[in-house]
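Sequence in, structure out. Go.
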Amino acid sequence: MKYILFIIIFFSLISKAQVVNKTDSNKLKENPSDTLVVDSGTKDSLKIFKPTINDYLHQTQFSEKKVFDTVMTFEKTYIFSQYNNKDNFGRVQFANIGAGFNPLSYEVNAEQNLALLPENKSYGIIGINDVQYYDVKTPTATFVYHNAMKNGAALKSTYTQNIGKRFNFALEYTGLRSQGMYRNFLAANNNTLFSGHYVSKSGNYELFAHYLHQNVNNQENGGIIEDDLFQSGDSDYKNRQNAQVNLASSSSQYSYRRYYLSHQFSPFNSEKYPFRIRHTISHQGNKYYYAQGSLEPYWYDAPQEIVAGFPLSTKKYSDNLSNTVSLVWDNEKFKLDAGVRYQMLKFGATPIMLPILEIPNEIKENRIGAVGNLQVKLLDKIQLNSFLEFSNGSQFGTYLKTTNNLKFEPIKDYFVNAKVNFQSVYPSFNYLLNTSSYNNFNYYLQNAKNQAITEIGGNVNLKWFKTELFVNYFRIDNYTYFDQFAAPRQSDSSLNISQIGGDATFTYGRFHLNTRVQFQNALTNKELLPMPSFIGRANIFYQSKAFKNAAEIQAGIKVYYFSKFASRDYFPILNEYLLPNSSSFSIGGQPIADVYFNMKVKKMFFFVEGQQIGTLIAHNQAYAFPHYPVYDFRLNLGIVWYLFN
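Output:
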């Protein structure tokens, strides 16, 4: 009797699950909401809980849940072969993982708004809307491994578990250490992320919270000295550690820390009145250090260019305490979120006293503003997402940002995405001021104007050859940049940029060809933002099941190319990019080819690449920046492993 009672109780707990009888020859119908329960088919048998992939979900805050993606697609060879686990099309990497990229294509990074974030430290930063929250039926772990460029590795590990049905916590740690191919170029990055998600039994209360701490630490070598020896393939340069570099004891460290909590409450019956009150509070602190063991002769020519008594190591920091209360109306077709936001901002640097330039030690202000989100769905064919934020303060001026995205399906399986985005915001804080032991690199951008960016564009997805066509146009007023002397400037006239391109995949049996091309041009003020006119990528590969369907394999060759152009220079003191100077030279016009073999076995992926195979035949002449070569041939290994316990 007790045994029967136990079965009844157990069955009531899983009554929403699907039961499959082994004696039943019918196939299990696909249903994302179902959990598989196996019944032996005998009388009084115990139903055994057996979770499926649909029981392992992730989401960003207040968004739809998605199933873990464990399908092997060619897109993953662009992602999991990269240390930051992103497709870095439109960028070219230094000769070390964790050291950043040269951005070949213009893009807007909202993480730099009203914050201190040097551009070359931004490529692995996790924003608020990037944080993943989970809902898993059993404890789950994932591991993503990348080997380093000489001595080291990068490992991202995630563990998540539900406690009961309504609370989930996750812990993520990423550690990276890579010596690099040249002297004084060590990268030692790490991040720690705790996250939690809770939903009350009634569903009237929901909470998202996380803590994030990221460090992006790099030795800075200033580039190689003897470029002619590198370009000629001199035998003394076969061991890259023999190459002389410009800096011997310099390094940069960037710390990004955030506490975040957002929760909402439904005071009424949410089915009848989909009305909620939402509260969000966060604190974000950014710190940037430039350190050196001694004064570097590369940065000065005469003693009078040194600030006497100033510390060799400098610090800049920003803080943002944000508190938002909003009202939310949320139903299936229409969602509106509107509220008020209060912020306390602070930005400062190592104090300095100069005879001809007064640089403030710290700038701080209180700001008040409003935020709003609108989502509209019509006829299951049209979806509109709009966001608006406005704030005002005494020190950093008026802030206005709006993003508007429209997605519709004019013909079945053909999608159009259109966007109109605008922001008017103070320049990134790294442009505002800097203090340094070198006189030439002390500056204060007084009376800065808002940099206004208008972005219009979109893409069309066609069924033929899985094609995507895209076009983007940017107009940037008061474009803010660093000139060839590392001084911040703002342009008097607008910078206009056009981008057009496409992505397509052609298939013949088990052979595939994926191509992506982008044509771009600065229509005005070309000299302020040098860029290649063409960026292209081709990937020809074979994909098939193998080993009696126990595995799936991909094998192919990828070629990446960007046209020759007069690139900006990399400036280690600021971790930013400067306009070309007298020692600069053009880069590009050198194809970068990789051969690869990828394999999936159950829930484990192996990504194996022979990168820069052209350097096995001829000496390397490719650069990421002037004086900073691209890596030579290397065996690049990536492993992704999902453990659903």
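Check: Helices lie at 2-13, 76-79, 227-232. Residues 551 and 602 are 7 Å apart (CA to CA).
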